[in-house]
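Students often ask why we bother predicting the structure of a whole assembly rather than each chain alone. The short answer is interfaces. A chain on its own may look different once its partners are present, and contacts between molecules only exist in the joint model. In this exercise we take two input lines together and write out one structure for the complete complex. Read the inputs first and try to guess which parts will touch.
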Amino acid sequence: MNRLRFWTLVPARALNFLFFLVPMGIVVLYSLMTRGPYGGQAPPFNLDNYVRLADPLYLTILLRSFWIAGISTFFAMLLGFPLALFIANSGKSRSMYLNLVMLPFWTSFLVRTYAWMFLLRDTGLINSGLMALGVIREPLPMLYNDAAVVLGLVYGYLPFMVLPIYSTLEKLDPSLLEAAADLGATPWVSLWRVTVPLALPGIVAGSILVFIPCLGAYLTPDLLGGGKSVMIGNVVQNQFTTARDWPFGASLSLVLTGLVMVLLWLFVRKGGDKYL
Amino acid sequence: MNLKRTIGLIAAASYLFLHVPLLVLIVFSFNSSRFTAWEGFSLKWYAAVLADERMLKATWNSLIIAFVSTIFAAAVGTLAAYGMWKKKAPVLEGSLYVSLITPEIVTGVSLLAFFQWLFHYMDVRLGMHTVILAHITFSIAYVVIVVAARLKTMDGTLEEAALDLGANHWEAFWRVTLPNLIPGVIAAALLAFTISFDDYVITAMVAGIDSETLPMVIYGMARKGVSPAVNAISAIIVVGIGVLIVASERLQHE
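Now the answer. The structure tokens for the assembled complex follow.
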């Protein structure tokens, strides 16, 4: 087009290259190196770090992460679909109800995670409330387990499920439901046989959108899972800090990023990006 | 069972699920007891926040980082969105999307590895500058998305008219397109500011000893689980960020 266009893109290209692509390139390089005697990384170059990923210890963590992300996605769908349906059917108040879903999403993720710690911990609101009422004597162990992590992930990423489903439902032609009713379908039957199939692209898009951040989660399992509930993100962090095995941490990072990229590719191929 | 009522009930439960935790946190930030039983209204935890030098220093750091990185990210991102308006830039666009979807912890460790590598050749340390560079980089993608959405609704022929009337490309951008873009740019900047102010995972990886941010302090206190002052500072953040986000949303749909 012109020289101006060229120059408008230069700063973004430069920053993205220098502070995103080059660091990722360094991670690739380190993942092929070996841990030095005092941490750090050194030659020889080989694929040992990737072979180590096949260790049952790390395979278990990988599977656990998939499991936790999958369960969270499932619960997000269970809540997200009726919620999206409710919003799509609420006429003039649609945008208000949609904003009510989005508002907590944009406030601090850390604070929202902390809010659950405040509710769930042994001295937290739920336990002290139940104890004050005499329902329980000992605090229920609600924090620092897988259930708390799933809860935090569903809470954190529910809007990612609601948005794409809502945008498929919004375009749904109401006369289809009238036709189903005329032909004798009960509301439940037409929900299951008309609405759900037509909303399926949105449900798939939403599920991928929720699954991606859940799989790469770090903060939620760290704070709500304590030391017990470990996901891939926590192992990556640990290798770069306490364990000081950067080459291995680098290979784990790349596997995680690779998995996420495959999911993103799937998402775009399914045409999911048009629901956002 | 009535379908409509069931859907309504699940929706109501979902809204409670989404909003009650933060509301409870805000309510209990006014509790006079240090334990989680309501004793009476008090502002003492807010006073404790104001008296906590570490928290104030961290808040100041967070504000500086968010402010500086927002200015740069808004400028760079707006220019880039403009550059991609009439002709695609698939490599940059793809790379920005990938940066958006990469798990934060991976972005964090890759920047840590990059800066450590750089320090073999340059005598600098981790600090405010490394945090700011990281924040500018991850904010650009958000700015591009918001500004590009605004550009999509704009009439490209206005700029062509300016060119026909003798403006050069720069004048057409500066005096015709940019003024129309301003609400989108401000919305994008507000969004970038809140994301920068809130970030913990990447920041903690690239921060030095002099650049502790507010989320880092909150993280530390949340792990120890001692002071209701965390509730007070959290309430301030929720309300502050909420105001910025509502403003940003308004501007985006103007």
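Check your guess against this: The domain at 51-252 of chain B is CATH 1.10.3720.10 (MetI-like fold).
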